[in-house]
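Q: Joint fold for the lines below.
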Amino acid sequence: MKNRILIIDDTIPLLEEITDILKMEEYEVETANDAYEGMRKVATTLPDLIITDVLMPEINGFQFIEKIRSLDKHKHIPIIVLSAQASKENIDKAKEVKADLYLKKPCSADELIYSIESLLNKSS
Amino acid sequence: MISGDNKKNIKILFIEDSEDDFELILNKLRKEGYTGKNTRVQNSEELIEALQEEWDLIISDNQLPRLNAQAALKITRNRDLHVPFIIVSGTIEDGDAVNAMREGANDYIIKNNLARFIPAIERELKEAENRKNRYKAEKALAKRQKEYKLLAENIHDLVCLHNPFGTYLWVSPSAKKITGYNYEELVDSAPENLLLSHEKGLLEERIWSVFREQSTIQSIRLDYKLRRKEGIIIYLETIAQPIYENKELKQILTTSRDITEQKLAYDLLIESESQYQSVVESIAEGVILYDEKGIIINYNKSASLILGLYDEVNKFTNLEEHFQLIKPDRTPFPTEQLPHKITLKTGKPCSNVVIGLPKESNILWLSFNSSLYLQPNGKTGVVISISDVTKQRVYEERVTAVAQELTTLIDTANAPIFGLDWYGKINEWNQVASKITGYSKEEIMGKTLIDEFILDGYKVAVTNLLKSAFRGKSVTNYELPIYTRTGKVVTILFNATPRRNINNDIIGLLGVGQDITELIDYRERLEHKVAERTKELKEALNKEKELVALKSKFVSMASHEFRTPLSTINFAANYLLKYSEKLTPQDSQQKLNKVMEQVRHMTYLLDDVLLIGKSEAGTIKVNPDVLNIQEFFLKMKEEVTNSTQNTHEIVVSLGLEKNMTVIDEKLLRNIVINLLTNAVKFSPGKKKVLLDVIYKSGLLTIKVKDWGIGIDDEDKSKIFEAFHRSNQAHAIQGTGLGLSIVKKAVDMQNGNIEVESELNEGTMIKVEIPVDEK
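A: Joint structure:
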């Protein structure tokens, strides 16, 4: 059974690239342009793992994670933060909202794939 | 009266009552040859009357009826002491005769014994003559003695009789006056006692012994000093004469005179004469005597030294022939103006006439003084005194030059300088002072500084300042507004120092000012400038701060805005590498296209950043060119619609007076793209954006309106700053450069930008750009 991964990012070209790579790695991929859409996709598609950007219109990535972690049904979903900003504040914030991993843009495809695999193995 | 031949012609008065007796006696006398007048009286009245005449003989009867011989004798002797009085009597007692003789009768004869009568008469007549002569001689002697006494007592000279050894035998009363000693004190004493101790013996040596030894000497004159009784010393001039008796020196007569005053006056004269001589000879001043014709008759040693005349007195009868005399201004000295000539002509003295005497290479400067004097011949001459003032003259010239320099210095100094006397009156006023105040030196001298120039509000303060300057305290840098002639007020920076004379007494003050009106203006301008600069500096500092902030903003922007496309590129590249075996050429091509698109995106981003950088550095130039604005705006609509993935419909409304204009296309593009992109970007979820363009009367007006998130008031002032992102925009990607680029582009074209926005309602931005249509 294929794992389903939800990617949330307001930069469409990036979404497309990540989608292409994950599909090559035999993952089912769902995407969202903003956090609202991301929430809806979590509820409707029940992803096994979520990759989210931080800087997005209206609701940012951290607020989104807090929301997920507050829902009993979804709080266990591993979440990777993929952010252009790698300041200590942001990393601390990610820990605070209980993100599982913090990846800094630009990261390599291998790095992303390895991170996803290790998180999925851990949770299964 | 009775002389030689007339011996018997005698006047006889008979006192006889008896005619017979009278005739008898008369006959007897006639017989004896006695002739002459005779008168007979019988009483005292007749006798008294007869005695008015002078008689040679009186013959009286002894007893007359009314007169007796005794009474007659008494009457007679009262009148005439010497006439022989013979009594002839008939009867006579011896007692009567004795009494009559006692009374002064000369003889007593009895009538009947007339034989004795004639011899008696003869004897008595002779006796009477003798008596008469003796009496006369005695009387003359007495008279002379009296005269001598008077003379001796009244002459001022001292007359003395000395014995041959000098001892005073007699001294005149003037002795008391001259010597202080009286007669009693002097007589029998020696005159030597009165001499000064060291001169004692002088009289013996010079007078007494001379007379004793040489009988031919008639008189000796001697001056000597004598000490008066009270000790005062006087000079005496004594003339001594010997008195001989039978060729034997009996006495010596001296007459002495007090010559102290003459002596002293003479001594004084001698002394002053010699002093005068030595003064004239020894003074440094040259003295020249001119006679009444203006010819030199004498001069002193100094004159010859000064003039170099030496002993050639005879050759120099005037100066002007031997010297080229010049005036202080070096022009020839007119002969007729020489001091001695002026004084001779006018009778008035000349003083301090400076005359130059060229001598070799130098000029000898002499000061001449002239005045009249009385020559011994009774005519007026001129005495000239000359002093060498060459050194003074040179010094004076130097001092004058220095004073002139100082005066010029003060007068031409580039600062107002004025002097005040003790009463605050102006006595110095230089050119700059005239220039500043408008008052010339001539009209201001003697006026009072305070009254003329000082503003009312400063009068008391300035009066006090001047007072303290007069007390010796300098006034420095006092800012003093004064009136000029035109009533304008000029501010002077005033310094005053006391002015002192050679004795260091304060005689006034010297004020030095500086016109600081311009300085004050300058100061004010400077202050203004400093304020401006400070402001500019602050702005620069703020800009610097902003720049620092800009940089950090850029860094954070770059980390996001560049990392995201870089991530995209990286993933695409990884994809191509990792799955190349599985990919069709189309897949690969598609990926590479995406990479190129991201590179393009990043290039735009960099261009924006560079544009801002350039515009900040001021290196962008406006390059207006002909542009069809209708086509331009439609193209912009297309471009933005595509780049924003058709999320919004851009509604364009064009109100163009004409399509063609002259404008910088690049700048206009930056404005329009950014405004439209922002409008789309910041109104997510909305459908429309409005672009309204009006071109009219050389003004291009562009309005872009959206119904997006809006801008709060806090951000409105900052939205044009580079890298600033509004509170609402944080969640929306962007460089923060858009509006900043718009603003720069508008400013460069002298345009205007306005923002109307309401939070969550939308934003309308209006841009106006003036277009030069020529």
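Q: Anything notable?
A: The beta strands of chain A are 4-8, 28-32, 49-52, 79-83, 101-104. The radius of gyration of chain A is 13 Å.
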